[in-house]
């Protein structure tokens, strides 16, 4: 006869609390736990299986089976009932287990014939670390409160595994799954290799107080914290100073939906009534939910998983009364940030000297945080699905920003191979540093200006370190992207003055604010509106001419900052010459305004335009005469010429930037600049790779701008380049039919024949 179990879960949790407080060895603690579970649930058998790194479930403790089978009995992931639970992360409750198709008999355990079977996964952050099982000879169906008690016990065991206690019981050469090496393949967002240790951007809060003394008090704490959480979400949705539109609003609406979901709240309340603290209840329900959602095939529902995780973490912080922690505190010297997603400003909160890399579960090459990470020179890999839940703070990790790979808890030989890669790159960087003192000239004596791209104060020290001739592109919009509100005129002026001071007379080209398209400012409603083709839409000069207050404020800040010096201003995404005339009128008006109030003005003001829109290719001579200089934005120009979205991974390798048609376009621009005596610079990814930089020089470009890290490799190529030979070579190959060998292969062969380092 089965006894009344109404008080069973509470009695079991009380006994577990006492066990956890006793000074026991890990094996003895596990043995006592399974004995107490069996007694509490009136079960003939209770067993714990722990998942090893080789995907084998090993029997770690049992009552009712052969005790000699402990650490010997094994099941593969997916094998038998236990293996099925581990593979699916779902509980199994069977009244006649032997009829289940997955049933498997292990002779070494000496188990007798049984009918009833209840098994639950041991979960932590949605990861299966093992399986906890009870069995009965009699045919019965376990009740919901018994399942809840077993799941709660499994959560306690998961924390024991995570703490490392149970790992001490592993046999030599066999490691638990928690320490298993894992590799992820995604997309390389920024070149470089980083070795270090995991710093979870929003680390899971470790719940140490698991068992409650007063369920009523814990329910009150939960209700209060849920109320505060709901209010904070409602407040964010209702605020008028921030434009939560599109995806921003959808995320918050999802948070609000979860926060008011009665099913979720009911599960939290049940866990508390069964003896857990409010925070332990959140941890348990969150882990259960994540395990279930991970096995859903619907991509939309799986995406909601991260919303749920974020919300649960917010609730945990409410319960524990934790505000934002000081980020630099206890940060390792070789930190690699691992995040689902993060804002650009959040990355800047981390001390740059301790960062070795960034890993994102989501993200895109053009996302704000990636743009900032590039500016900081940090290797970045993204689209690494599952990396956050597999990572623990302090885990060794390698981020490969060249191949787009991440290696978590790597094997020693892999770590050694990557360490050698890093040393090799460091040796090359040392060679590049030595090149700084050499003139930037080709082998046959042609001078070339190697400029750097920048956009933030953190970029400025690299001007001297890279040996750049100046800043060929200062992206002023980055200051807007990392701010929570529009930067005040004084803040803009200070940044621009600091840039010019750091340049010490070297040329600096400021591009006016280039927002819109993929550069959405959440606090600016105008830039967040839905557009079918944002890259072709309301952005850059189009936006600022329609919102002239933005441009006037920025121009005034630039004019003040450049007092007594030369000021070079460049307009992005110009489509027709009338836009230049409109912008010049705004600039002239600001000059007159400052003159009236006797402000110190620049000694000279040069206005330039970016060639990114193909329509300018049929206005080149008129354009060159309308401006003081031009700069080719090769990224956007290539995108528009080839009708290929540069953020679309399916098209990433489809069209070559060194194809004959695109090189002919670039040559037209260089020739028009020469013909009209108008300086031409190119600032895009083409400038930063030695092989494409070599092609640009052969086409007639004598000024190119790139990331600071690219200047060394490009200069190493430049000093070995016989430019006269290359120019003749390109003239010959571009003049004939385009259907020859790929131009990239021809350029590579040209360099190989002359020992030019690419």
Features:
44% helix, 758 residues, 22 strands, 26 helices, metal-binding, disordered N terminus, 8-stranded parallel β-barrel, 8-stranded mixed beta sheet
Summarize the structure in words.
The protein has 758 residues and is of the alpha/beta class. The strands form 3 sheets. An 8-stranded mixed sheet has the order 7-14-13-9-10-11-12-8. An 8-stranded parallel β-barrel has the order 15-16-17-18-19-20-21-22, surrounded by 4 helices. The chain has a 6-stranded antiparallel sheet with strand order 3-2-1-6-5-4. The model is unreliable at 1-6, 239-248 and 298-303 (pLDDT under 50).
Poorly predicted ranges: 1-6, 239-248, 298-303
Strands ordered across the widest β-sheet: 7-14-13-9-10-11-12-8
Indicate the percent of residues in helices.
Answer: 40-55%
- Assign an overall shape: elongated
Taking the alpha carbons of the first and last residues, their distance comes to 81 Å
Instruction: Kindly report the average pLDDT value.
Output: 83
Main pleated-sheet profile: 8 strands, mixed
Give the strand tally.
22
């Amino acid at each position: 006869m089965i006894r009344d179990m109404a008080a069973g879960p509470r009695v079991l949790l009380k006994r577990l609390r006492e066990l956890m407080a006793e000074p026991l060895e890990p094996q003895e603690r596990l043995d006592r736990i399974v004995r107490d579970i069996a007694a509490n649930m009136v079960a003939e058998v209770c067993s714990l299986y722990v998942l090893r790194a080789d995907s084998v479930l090993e029997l770690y403790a049992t009552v009712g089976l052969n005790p000699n089978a402990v650490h010997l009995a094994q099941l593969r992931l997916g094998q038998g009932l236990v293996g099925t639970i581990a593979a699916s992360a779902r509980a199994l409750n069977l009244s006649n287990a032997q009829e289940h198709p997955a049933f498997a008999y292990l002779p070494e355990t000496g188990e007798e014939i049984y009918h009833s079977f209840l098994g639950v996964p041991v979960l932590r952050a949605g990861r299966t670390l093992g399986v906890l099982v009870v069995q009965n000879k009699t045919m019965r169906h376990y009740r919901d409160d018994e399942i809840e008690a077993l799941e709660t016990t499994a959560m306690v065991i998961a924390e024991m595994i995570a703490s490392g206690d149970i790992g001490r019981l592993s046999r030599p050469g066999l490691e638990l799954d928690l320490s298993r090496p894992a590799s992820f393949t995604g997309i390389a967002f920024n070149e470089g290799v980083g070795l270090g240790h995991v710093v979870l951007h929003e680390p899971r809060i470790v719940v140490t107080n698991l068992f409650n003394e007063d369920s009523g008090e814990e329910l009150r704490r939960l209700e209060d914290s849920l109320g505060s959480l709901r209010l904070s979400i409602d407040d964010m949705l209702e605020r008028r100073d921030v434009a939560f539109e599109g995806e921003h609003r959808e995320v918050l609406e999802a948070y609000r939906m979860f926060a008011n979901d009665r099913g979720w709240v009911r599960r939290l309340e049940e866990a508390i009534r069964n003896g857990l603290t409010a925070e332990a209840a959140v941890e348990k329900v969150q882990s259960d939910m994540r395990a279930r959602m991970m096995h859903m095939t619907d991509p939309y529902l799986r995406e909601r998983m991260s919303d749920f995780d974020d919300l649960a973490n917010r609730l945990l912080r409410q319960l524990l009364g934790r505000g934002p922690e000081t980020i630099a505190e206890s940060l390792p010297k070789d930190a690699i940030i691992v995040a689902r997603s993060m804002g650009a400003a959040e990355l800047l909160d981390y001390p740059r000297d301790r960062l070795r890399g960034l890993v994102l579960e989501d993200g895109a090459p053009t996302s704000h945080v990636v743009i900032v990470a590039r500016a900081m020179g940090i290797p970045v890999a993204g689209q690494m699905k599952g990396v956050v839940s597999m990572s623990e703070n302090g885990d060794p990790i390698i981020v490969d920003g060249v191949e787009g790979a991440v290696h978590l808890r790597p094997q020693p030989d892999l770590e050694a191979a990557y360490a050698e890669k890093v040393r090799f790159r460091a040796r090359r960087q040392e060679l590049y540093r030595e090149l700084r003192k050499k003139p930037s000239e080709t082998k046959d004596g042609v001078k070339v200006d190697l400029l750097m791209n920048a956009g933030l104060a953190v970029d400025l020290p690299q001007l001297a370190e890279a040996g750049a001739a100046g800043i060929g592109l200062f992206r002023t919009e980055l200051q807007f992207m990392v701010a929570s509100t529009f930067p005040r005129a004084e803040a803009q002026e200070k940044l621009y003055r600091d840039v010019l001071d750091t340049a010490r007379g070297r040329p600096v080209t400021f591009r006016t604010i280039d927002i819109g398209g993929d550069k959405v400012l959440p606090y600016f409603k105008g830039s967040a509106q839905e557009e079918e083709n944002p890259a072709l839409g309301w952005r850059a000069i189009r936006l600022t001419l329609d919102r002239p207050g933005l441009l006037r404020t920025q121009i005034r800040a630039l004019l003040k900052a450049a007092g007594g010096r030369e000021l070079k201003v460049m307009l992005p995404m110009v489509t027709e010459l009338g836009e230049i005339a409109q912008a010049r009128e705004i600039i002239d008006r600001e000059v007159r305004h400052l003159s009236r109030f006797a402000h110190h003005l620049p000694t000279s003001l040069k206005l330039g335009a970016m060639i990114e829109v193909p329509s300018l290719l049929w206005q080149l001579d008129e354009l060159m005469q309308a401006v003081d200089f031009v700069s080719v934005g090769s990224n956007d120009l290539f995108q528009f010429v080839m009708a290929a979205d540069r953020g679309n991974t399916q098209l990433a390798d489809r069209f070559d930037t060194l194809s004959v048609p695109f090189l002919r376009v670039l040559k037209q621009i260089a020739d028009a600049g020469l013909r009209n005596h108008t300086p031409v610079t190119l600032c895009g990814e083409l400038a930063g790779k030695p092989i494409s930089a070599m092609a640009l020089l052969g086409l007639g470009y004598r000024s190119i701008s790139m990331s600071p890290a690219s200047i060394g490799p490009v200069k190493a190529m430049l000093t070995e380049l016989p430019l006269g030979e290359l120019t003749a070579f390109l003239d010959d190959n571009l003049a004939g039919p385009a259907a020859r060998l790929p131009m990239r292969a021809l350029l590579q062969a040209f360099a190989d024949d002359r020992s030019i380092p690419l």
